[in-house]
Amino acid sequence: MMPTPVRRRAPRGSGEELRPRIVAAAKKLMAAAATAEEVSIRAVAAAVGVTPPSIYLHFEDKQALITAVVIDVFEELDQLMVAAVADVTDPLERLRIFGLTYVRFALDHPEHYRLATMDACPRPDVDQLLAASAFVHLREAAVACIEAGVFAPAEPIGVTLELWAAAHGVAALLVSKPYLPYGDPMAYADRVLCAAAYGHTVAANDWPPEGGTGRMGG
């Protein structure tokens, strides 16, 4: 009887299993650092238990690694947004929850959020990921509000961009200027998001009145 061959264990850091470990390690280090610039390839390699050259077998440079981390984080956002409205059918409430989930996520991942949405350097692949998660979900809720007559008839893309601007504006302020007197951050976010949404519900009720401009103070 032939002996059963002993399967040799792949060397640590080899094969496709290393890439997600690298991303996970970099993600954890970035979350603990003040900025992504503080996280070095050497530190990531040490956290994974490999040498720095092993990192470059999977990522061209540090920028490519940062992009992979941000994409991974925003995949989490996609899952969170879907789960948050699993039992919610009212379109306006779904929109509210989507917005609050987005802001809460930014507060929980400030450095990742800054890199993805506030960095001057464009990252087209991250933009595509955002369009596949946050934007899509906000658009879904906006379309539902329009179709239900909660919002006035409008081009959904424009409405979605306005609502995303509100969510991002709140998130960006809370992340970059946390010392301002917002009060409870999520209560503040709720007020701003509701104001943005209710502007469209007012428009659905023929605002401004005939002969008016719709402008405050004039």
Please give a structural write-up:
The relative contact order is 0.10. The protein has 2 domains: 14-59, Arc Repressor Mutant, subunit A, CATH 1.10.10; 70-203, Tetracycline Repressor, domain 2 (Orthogonal Bundle), CATH 1.10.357. α1 (18-32) crosses α4, α5 crosses α6 and α8 (134-147) packs across α9. By secondary structure, the chain is mainly alpha-helical. It contains 10 helices and no strands. Helices cover 64% and strands 0% of the residues.
Task: Provide a quick synopsis of the model.
By secondary structure, this protein is an all-alpha fold. It has helices at residues 18-32, 41-48, 52-56, 62-84, 91-108, 110-117, 124-132, 134-147, 156-176, 185-203. Helix 4 packs antiparallel against helix 5 and helix 4 packs parallel to helix 7 (124-132).
Write the layout of secondary structure elements.
Layout: H1 18-32, H2 41-48, H3 52-56, H4 62-84, H5 91-108, H6 110-117, H7 124-132, H8 134-147, H9 156-176, H10 185-203
Helix pairs in contact: 1-2, 1-4, 4-5, 4-6, 4-7, 5-6, 5-8, 5-9, 5-10, 6-9, 8-9, 9-10
The N- and C-terminal alpha carbons lie at a distance of 95 Å
The global form is: elongated
CATH topology annotation of the largest domain: Tetracycline Repressor, domain 2
Q: Overall pLDDT, averaged? A: 82
Sheet with most strands: none
Structural class label: mainly alpha
Amount of helix: 55-70%
* CATH homologous superfamily designation of the largest domain: Tetracycline Repressor, domain 2
- In the CATH hierarchy, the architecture of the largest domain is Orthogonal Bundle
Q: How many strands?
A: 0
The level 1 CATH classification of the largest domain is Mainly Alpha
Order of helices and strands: HHHHHHHHHH
The domain tally reads 2
Percent range for β-strand residues: under 5%
Rg, alpha carbons = 22 Å
Low-confidence stretches: 1-13, 211-218
Number of helices: 10
